[in-house]
Amino acid sequence: QDPTAAHYMFQDDPFLMPRNAANSRLFSLSKESGRNAAKYIIKQFPQYFDKTFAEPNIPCLMPETLTPQIEGLSEEALKERIHLRRVKDSVDLFDQLVQAGTPVSLETTNSLLDLLCFYGDGESTLEKEDLEEPGVNASEQEAPKREFQRGSQPSGSRWRENNNAERIFKIMPERNAHSYCTMIRGMVKHGASAKAYDMYIGLLNERHKADVHTFNALITAVPYLKERFLERWELAKVFLNHMAQQEVQPNLLTFNALLKTLRRCGGVGRNMALLVIKEMEALDIEPSLATYDHLLFIFYRGADLCPSGIISEVLGDVGKRSFTPQDPDDGMDFNISDNLLCLSLGEKCCDLKDIKLAYRLNKAMEKGDNWKFLDMDRLNAYWSKFFSLLCMMEQIDVVLKWYKEMSSSLFYPTPKNILDLLQALDAANHLEVIPSVWEDMKQLGFNRRQDLLEELLSLMSRERHPDEIQLAFAKCAEEIKAVHEQTRREQSLLEWTGSTLGHVALLFSRAGRTQEAWYVNMMERFQQISRIPTDQVMDEFLNCAKKTNCPDEAIKLVKLAASLGLPSSQRLKNRTEKEFELSEKQK
């Protein structure tokens, strides 16, 4: 892998190579927006895309036929509109068939219920289709899509009272288990948990059996049906007992739904979570990434972090496997999953300050295709946390090796990463690397960050270094001075602070650049912005003036100290008279 290469998605257009994480996010979202715009045009104007000139013609690369081909009032026309996900057209045609006395089969009516329950009685949109690809016939083999955001009622479309799905369900001459299951899953998906529970009671009264996906949805809805932690667990057990009575075999999503519910059961969840994992092992069901994520959340929730063997065991299991997506919470879509395992583990390794755990996590993340579970934003967040931990815990040579391999290839350093790196260089006394860090800061667009500039200048000016390093530091100071003086139309002027002025003056003075130290910073700037230079700045400048034999500059320094009313003015005057050969006029 080329450590200087950007992410593969940007390599089509070198002009759009991002400089930092913000650019990366903007460019990737722009690219996705372009795809959505193209889909919208094709959907809105299908008549312009009905010609296939490609040779050979590859159907999978051609736009889908999105306009109904069957005209008239028939069940076949209704099936076609359901297949094309035309919610309003499907409902209108169904009503017309009912009014005309044309019987609609139970299978077709169930397919219409599937469509209505999936979209929440609203029209299908590009965004929904991109986030979740439903089979219109929600069969038992399909995994249910995610119903809730953690810790809150589900966002998005809501289940309206007496909507088309409920109306059609009520007028159905006969209903089977599929009809009830579809309604229950739709109600849970769109936030009507209480109605879903009532519908489940109706299913039991009609002596139907629910499928495994319906039970999974009901278990997920438990936190919205009961308020007390123990009541939530008891209701979840009721659903599990019903599964056993109806001989419904639980699957991975069942246990993940149960663990997701236990996340919101406080201490009860911690007591029961490991029993759920043991039951999974007994049934020979392998956990997915979402399983481990739920488990870690239960045991490492909030700020109450304490050393535990669970995180080590989880990493041991994760490190042995290359995962495939089996649950929407596994993180294949960044708009659906909000707490991915790798990111979650990375945060906990940082909080526990355990570098060995972090290395184990990184090895597991790089195994097979596990890295694909993190989208670009979260991948950058993961590497950022990992690098911060390296700066805190590792030797500087190791830190710099990782930085060289990771920067701009695996992730774009954040301002905090740069600050952590500067502090690591300071702790290891490797300040000669600072000029190269400054070059990276310019590339990343951080050259106007006041906090980073203050830290950078403070480290460079704190003590004297060999002449070669001082010259490199002075060059950095010159560029920082130029940044302060830039006046672009779209950027506000970067204000000088007293400490920044002092640091730049020190760096110029130590490099023997007396004229720049005086005219650009001290005389003009200190008086203009009413800032007071430190005694160190004054002494260093006087030393520089002595070294370059510039008595005029020394006299200006004494005058400046006197005009600012500095206590050191008399001392500077005495030094000037003693260390310089002054003419009568200068005296």
Automatic annotation (TrEMBL):
Stretches assigned to coiled coil: none
Molecular function terms from GO: ribosomal small subunit binding; rRNA binding
Subcellular location: Mitochondrion
Family of this protein: Belongs to the mitochondrion-specific ribosomal protein mS39 family.
Highest taxon, organism lineage: Eukaryota
Encoding gene, per UniProt annotation: ptcd3
Region (Disordered): 128-160
Keyword Ion transport included in the entry's annotation: no
GO annotation terms (biological process): mitochondrial translation; regulation of translation
Record keywords, A-Z: Mitochondrion, Repeat, Ribonucleoprotein, Ribosomal protein, RNA-binding, rRNA-binding, Transit peptide, Translation regulation
Name the UniProt record assigns to this protein: Small ribosomal subunit protein mS39
A GO cellular-component term linked to this record: ribosome
